[in-house]
Amino acid sequence: MTDPTHETDELQLPFGFQFSGIHCGLKESANDLSVILCDAPSTAAGVYTQNLVRAASIDWNRNITPTPSIRALVINSGNANACTGDQGVRDNAEMAATVAKTIGCEPEQIATLSTGIIGHPLPMDRITSGIQTALAEAGSERQDFLNAVDGMMTTDRFRKTHSQSLTIGGSHGVITGMAKGAGMIGPNMATMLAVVMTDWYLPPKVADRVLKKAVDASFNCISVEGHTSTNDAVLLLSSSGGRPIHQTEQIQAFEAALTDSCIALARQIPSDGEGASHLIEIHVRGTQENREADRIARTVANSALVKTAITGTDPNWGRIISAAGYAGVDFNIETTSLQLNGHGLFEAGQPIPFDATVVSDALSSSFTSLIELQVGSGPGQATHWTSDLTVDYVRLNSEYTT
Amino acid sequence: MTDPTHETDELQLPFGFQFSGIHCGLKESANDLSVILCDAPSTAAGVYTQNLVRAASIDWNRNITPTPSIRALVINSGNANACTGDQGVRDNAEMAATVAKTIGCEPEQIATLSTGIIGHPLPMDRITSGIQTALAEAGSERQDFLNAVDGMMTTDRFRKTHSQSLTIGGSHGVITGMAKGAGMIGPNMATMLAVVMTDWYLPPKVADRVLKKAVDASFNCISVEGHTSTNDAVLLLSSSGGRPIHQTEQIQAFEAALTDSCIALARQIPSDGEGASHLIEIHVRGTQENREADRIARTVANSALVKTAITGTDPNWGRIISAAGYAGVDFNIETTSLQLNGHGLFEAGQPIPFDATVVSDALSSSFTSLIELQVGSGPGQATHWTSDLTVDYVRLNSEYTT
Fold this sequence. Notes:
The structure is a homodimer.
Chain A lengths: L16 E6 L10 E16 L7 H9 L2 E13 L5 H19 L6 E8 L6 H14 L4 H10 L8 E9 L2 E10 L12 E9 L2 H13 L5 E2 L9 E12 L3 H19 L1 H4 L7 E9 L2 H12 L2 H8 L5 H9 L11 E4 L2 E5 L2 E2 L4 H9 L3 E7 L5 E8 L3 H8 L4
Parallel strand pairs in A: 3-4, 7-9, 8-15, 10-14
Antiparallel strand pairs in A: 1-2, 2-3, 2-9, 5-6, 6-7, 10-15, 11-12, 11-14, 12-13
């Protein structure tokens, strides 16, 4: 069973960007170095990992974003450049400087992203010559975009992209993104990365604000095993040649569309979770505050017992209800109800009769398992996505030896 | 490889208690009903699950403890009597009333514990006749105690007991405990339970205070998959016929010994974690506050990537360091060092050279894996215990269908 969300067929590329992805020798054979070039100085905003242990690229980007003058983003896979000390900081600056020198700008106009093994210095000779090759090959065709997507992948089994076009304030534009990640995977193969590009123009502060909100409702609501990596980052690039978005209602429309794009990209990550046989989507409703619903959804999503129940297509309401119960949120079990793939299992504090075979069959026949938990009548709600926990997940993560 | 901590050979039974364990038909064949009788009204204190979804027995005990007048504890396995509504509350009260009537006291002098499947009513006819049989057979021999231990087990693979004798304030006494649990296991086979008995006499408020402290450093520091159950409980029974403990230094000595007992019992639970091939012991030192060290240790213990690395005997420092990094505690990576089974892997923010084969062999040849993380020079510290995550864990928890 495969998840229907990963479609590259309907890609629409935003104006104002060029793409490239090549193999420079960080990985055995696949693409491992990508660049995204802005035709003119553009807006860039970012949301970064909260991990105390951060890659050099994360600190670099935190210093330069939000900015109105980004010129390029360079991404390498195969090496996270994390836990590499001062050498790592110098190497990251050199990556940016190499791009800047070649295209003619300041290093601070270049964002950097890295993903891969941690604790090993970057082989800078390969990076430097790879950057030259990638820049020489950049283009604005569909294949150029896909090459760039490939260059950021590590153990991903499929490309993660999403594209939408819509009209805001009378002008037509595109929001298109790429993402990578399948859990914090491999030995130290960390990281969830995403880059979303648009040919609307947003000022840096606006871009920063709308990206944070969109990420809160999307990338911050997914997990594979709940391990925040050293390199997680989501970047928004907004072309300065694009139609400007200024008015409040235009910004709101853009934020809603950006959130949709981020959700569409984000849910592909647990869909590709290592060994995953199901994507689990968890809706929690009825709390007073959204953050209470968020906390319950997050706790259910992180429960190994809930995940393994879904793996076994077992309509095990007890694991879900008791996980909600230890989330640290005060709700009334007497007003709590639970549906699994649309089938009612629990109501008003007690299990209700259901045909276990029918519900189990429903779990078997759908890649996405939908857990709907209503815990009261308040306006608070949240949605989280996670992957199930399979024998293959454990095999992949225990049978590797560094 | 088996863990050396589960030893029933050196059991010393405290004076003032009688024990019984029988099969009454809640489970297929093994013991499923136990009683612990106090020769005279005794002190009882308890620490209970924080889960919002609680078994009837938990609410019952919360109402009656701490108390100076407990007469008996009745424990059933095979059925948790949780998510059973008003019927469950009535059934639990009837369990207590049946014991009380038979031995001649008030129902509120009887504590109750249940463990097993949730959402099903207790078969009260079997419970009621079982209580009569159990009370008739109670005795103070070693085998009586072991029968009672068996009656509280669910999917435990081995009995969990601990016993120590020591002298406090010139008088000799015993602290002896029993526990059950192997994760929140089976379908809804919840629960960690423990009962610790002593023939020193402590007033109820003192018992309550020292038990809370002992549990904080022991049962609250273990996890299998981090799932807090609906029925978790630890009870302390202190014989009223025993030598009284009053003075501050005597209470401190007792608290230290009780903590040792609780730790010895608690660590047997992840040792018996479903499918576990290693017990993982995590020491965190060098924070300002103990609670910061606790938070880091808990986060490392709950990381599926750390657990699977230990399963694979992989000295994967990156997974441990990055898990510490997202614990939400501010520490300086530049002063952080990591040892695994005594081998240094990481120092001052960077990996140090080590022989991976030697460390992997050390992990292979010991049931207990020791992770020592020093994150600074502060006085804060904490120790946690967890089990590794194996293919067998996932099989056991996904291949069952309710």
